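Figure 3 (text version): structure tokens given as input.
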């Protein structure tokens, strides 16, 4: 089974949720849709736009193979649902889920509570790929889980670019936070009513991410998350 993440610039007039049936009919065994919508407007403070306009939707699709002959109908469905003026990038990824959603279990098609923060990661110029992987996957994973109030953590390492629209990236990360974290930095960093804990957590996070991210090329998008079928992170 292979996973493809489509990165979309739609202008927010797409019907991606309406395309789920067609995607499963085209062979997808699982589909996840992440949208920028009014439900996540309060989380605007967490939005980082170093490449404007930043993507406003993501579609994850699980297929038996990402070979172009099998993927072609899925590409076409996503493009059609994204709208005539949309830009569509697509990445074949390997996925890891250090944290499953056991806290807010949702039924297929139901919006996951809170918000899902999707980040497009790019490593610093000159950093070796193995150094990037070690600092991110081996070292940073524990820091992310210890310093934030997340209930889903999915790491997608880009293996190959399938549709080259938009700025290339090394990885796509998804972290889900509860509603309170949209507007409360203490809630986001798991430090409610504790300023010293907040200072510690934000300092550790910045120190860790600075080791493997080009922060001037980082894009972060708060989204609403909808899963259909056996999507990663829905344990």
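Below: residues designed for each position.
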């Amino acid at each position: 089974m292979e996973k493809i993440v489509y990165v979309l610039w739609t202008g927010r007039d797409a019907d991606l949720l309406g395309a789920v049936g067609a995607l499963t009919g085209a062979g997808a065994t699982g589909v996840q849709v992440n949208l920028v919508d009014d439900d996540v407007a309060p989380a605007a403070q967490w939005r980082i736009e170093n490449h404007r306009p930043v993507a406003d939707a993501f579609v994850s699709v699980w297929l038996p193979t990402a070979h172009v002959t099998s993927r072609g109908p899925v590409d076409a469905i996503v493009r059609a649902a994204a709208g005539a003026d949309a830009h569509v990038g697509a990445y074949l990824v390997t996925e890891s889920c250090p944290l499953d959603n056991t806290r807010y279990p949702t039924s297929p098609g139901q919006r996951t509570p809170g918000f899902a923060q999707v980040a497009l990661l790019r490593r610093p110029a000159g950093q070796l790929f193995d150094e990037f992987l070690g600092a991110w996957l081996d070292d940073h994973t524990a820091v992310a889980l210890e310093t934030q109030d997340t209930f889903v953590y999915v790491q997608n390492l880009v293996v190959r670019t399938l549709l080259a629209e938009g700025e290339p990236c090394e990885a796509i990360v998804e972290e889900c936070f509860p509603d309170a974290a949209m507007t409360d930095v203490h809630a986001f960093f798991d430090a409610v009513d504790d300023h010293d804990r907040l200072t510690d957590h934000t300092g550790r996070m910045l120190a860790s991410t600075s080791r493997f991210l080009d922060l001037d090329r980082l894009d972060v998008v708060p989204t609403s998350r909808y899963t259909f079928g056996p999507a990663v992170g829905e344990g």
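The domain at 2-228 is CATH 3.30.70.100 (Alpha-Beta Plaits).
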